[in-house]
Write a structure and sequence with these properties.
Radius of gyration: 17 Å
Helix content: 40-55%
Largest sheet: 6 strands, parallel
Shape: globular
Strand order of the largest sheet: 1-2-3-4-5-6
Strand content: 15-25%
Distance between the termini: 20 Å
Number of strands: 6
Structural class: alpha/beta
Order of helices and strands: HEHEHEHHEHEHEH
Length: 170
């Protein structure tokens, strides 16, 4: 779909914030740049959700995009060299307003998060429990909560699960 068509649809929604997500958006940053430039010129705030494996181009950063970075942990199943790219994480950490969110299965995952944070400067830290149902998420919040707070990190829920459950495409 041409970027102008996407822009027209988003502009018609009259929303102040546009979040670009799905797959790895930074793999398409050259194609996204005209859309983002047009939206920011019209006063929209833009956020890109990324896994932190691709370095953002300076031209994209200069547009004032905020990055929500969710590096994958070992439980994702990918080898470390594939899921943690130091140069990309450092570049993203240097952009003002960037936040780092880690999806955790258990308290044990928090030690891995601490290692990533120490090695790559990925702050501020947000912890989100893994879960496909509201009950799973609630259990994760209860299990992780005290330890996350003790480490001085932020804890967040999975709002899309609370609202839509397992329905896809929302």
């Amino acid at each position: 779909m041409p970027w102008r068509t996407v822009y027209d649809r988003l502009a018609a929604m009259e929303v102040p914030l546009v979040v670009i997500s799905g797959g790895e958006p930074l793999n398409q940053q050259a194609r996204l740049r005209p859309l983002i430039a047009a939206l920011t010129a019209d006063g929209h705030r833009l956020e890109i959700e990324t896994n932190g494996t691709v370095t953002p181009a300076a031209a994209l950063v200069d547009l004032g995009v905020r990055f929500n970075v969710s590096p994958k942990l070992a439980h994702a199943g990918d080898r470390e060299s594939r899921r943690l790219r130091p140069e990309a994480l450092a570049a993203l950490a240097a952009v003002p307003g960037t936040a780092f969110k880690f999806v955790c299965r258990s308290v044990g995952d928090l030690d891995e998060v601490a290692t990533v944070v120490a090695a790559h400067g990925t702050r501020p830290v947000w912890i989100m429990p893994e879960g496909r149902t509201a009950d799973d998420v609630a259990r994760g919040l209860q299990e992780l909560g005290d330890e996350v707070v003790a480490r001085g990190w932020n804890l967040t829920t999975r709002l899309h699960i609370a609202v839509w459950g397992e329905r896809r495409g929302k």
